[in-house]
């Protein structure tokens, strides 16, 4: 998701290298250059080297008014990385038989009017996963704000249903990156599992893979780890974390490089095992994707952009 302000930068990368220390030094130098050029207040990077060894690189402070340094435990809102979490939850529900790829979404929203059910009859779970539903990138209610301000709207299911009723589909079958589409998947997951999304996040992700600090809302004990966000158009003006209600899952989850690296190590191990066994497990998310366009080298599915080499 494009934003007009920034906490800083958080990345988790997998690399295969022989000369580890030299590579790490190059990354650190690039971090310093980028922070200076872009006036970024903080950067946290986790490098997963050769699938197992994790190096945490952190530069900057929790805010411009403190000397407390960021670490791998510092919390950022991770934006569209949350879409992969939704993809993982949906994949679990598919494997459990609680969802089917070909299900049209009106099945999950009986309160829709007959006209809206007809309009959305060909919008399936799979089309949402592939960003080919025709849903627009954003919708008016949750994303309505003045330029330069954070998203602060307690978006609820009632707002969502109203927007589905008035939704105008665009280029069905073509790739259109949609935050609203993945928000729809998070609400479908709740209804299919009869479970609130925070509990699904804990069940299928944070408890299972020991991601102790990944959450939808800050707890009082974790506020001390939060990196202060600053506006992108005014780098020294502090702003606020996003509060998006039911649209938080695809765009406003909190996490840190410690948790993201923990998940990445397990994803890499799962994919390595899959190469020999071909057994699909919940962490295998890259086997059902579609190219962004004809002959494109990159495809998309389950919240992931996948290159030619996966």
How would you describe this structure in keywords?
310 residues, 3-stranded antiparallel sheet, 9 helices, 10 strands, 34% helix, globular
Describe this structure in words.
- This protein has 310 residues and is α+β, with helices and mostly antiparallel strands.
- The protein is built from nine helices and ten strands.
- The model is unreliable at 1-6 (pLDDT under 50).
- The longest helix is centred in the C-terminal third of the chain and has 21 residues, at 257-277.
- The helix fraction, in percent, is 25-40%
Mean pLDDT: 91
SSE order: EEHEEEHHHHHHHEEHEEE
- Treating each run of at least 4 consecutive H or I residues as one helix, how many helices? 9
What Rg, in angstroms, do the CA atoms define? 20 Å
| Structure classification | alpha+beta
Largest sheet: 3 strands, mixed
Give the spatial strand order of the biggest sheet.
2-3-4
The fraction of residues assigned to DSSP E strands is: 5-15%
Quick overview of this protein structure:
This protein has 310 residues and is of the alpha+beta class. It has nine helices and ten strands. The protein has helices at 20-38, 81-95, 114-119, 125-129, 140-143, 157-166, 179-193, 197-206, 257-277; strands at 5-6, 9-15, 42-49, 53-60, 76-77, 230-231, 254-255, 290-291, 299-301, 304-306.
Topology:
Blueprint: E1 5-6, E2 9-15, H1 20-38, E3 42-49, E4 53-60, E5 76-77, H2 81-95, H3 114-119, H4 125-129, H5 140-143, H6 157-166, H7 179-193, H8 197-206, E6 230-231, E7 254-255, H9 257-277, E8 290-291, E9 299-301, E10 304-306
Helix pairs in contact: 2-7, 2-8
């Amino acid at each position: 998701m494009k934003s007009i302000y920034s906490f800083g930068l958080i990345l988790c990368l997998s690399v295969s290298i022989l000369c580890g220390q030299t590579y790490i030094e190059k990354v650190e130098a690039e971090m310093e250059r980028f922070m200076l050029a872009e006036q970024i207040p903080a950067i946290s990077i986790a490098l997963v080297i050769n699938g197992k060894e994790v190096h945490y690189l952190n530069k900057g402070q929790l805010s411009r008014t403190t000397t407390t340094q960021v670490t791998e435990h510092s919390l950022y809102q991770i934006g569209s990385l949350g879409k992969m979490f939704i993809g993982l939850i949906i994949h679990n529900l598919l494997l459990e038989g609680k969802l089917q790829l070909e299900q049209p979404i009106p099945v999950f929203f009986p309160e829709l009017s007959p006209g809206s059910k007809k309009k959305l009859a060909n919008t399936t779970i799979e089309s949402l996963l592939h960003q080919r539903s025709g849903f627009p990138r954003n919708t008016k209610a949750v994303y309505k704000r003045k330029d330069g301000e954070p998203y602060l709207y307690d978006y609820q299911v009632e707002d969502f249903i109203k927007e589905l009723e008035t939704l105008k589909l665009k280029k069905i079958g073509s790739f259109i990156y949609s935050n609203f589409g993945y928000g729809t998947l998070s609400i479908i997951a709740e209804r299919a599992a009869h479970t609130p999304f925070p509990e699904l996040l804990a069940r299928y992700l944070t408890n299972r893979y020991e991601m102790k600090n990944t959450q939808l809302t800050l707890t009082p004990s974790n506020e001390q780890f939060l990196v202060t966000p600053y506006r992108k158009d005014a780098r020294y003006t502090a702003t606020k974390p996003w509060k998006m209600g039911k649209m938080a899952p695809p765009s406003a989850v909190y996490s840190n490089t410690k948790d993201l690296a923990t998940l990445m190590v397990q994803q890499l191990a799962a994919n390595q095992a899959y190469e020999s066994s071909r057994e699909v497990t919940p962490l295998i998310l890259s086997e059902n994707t579609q190219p962004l366009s004809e002959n494109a080298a990159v495809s998309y599915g389950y919240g992931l952009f996948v290159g030619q080499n996966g």
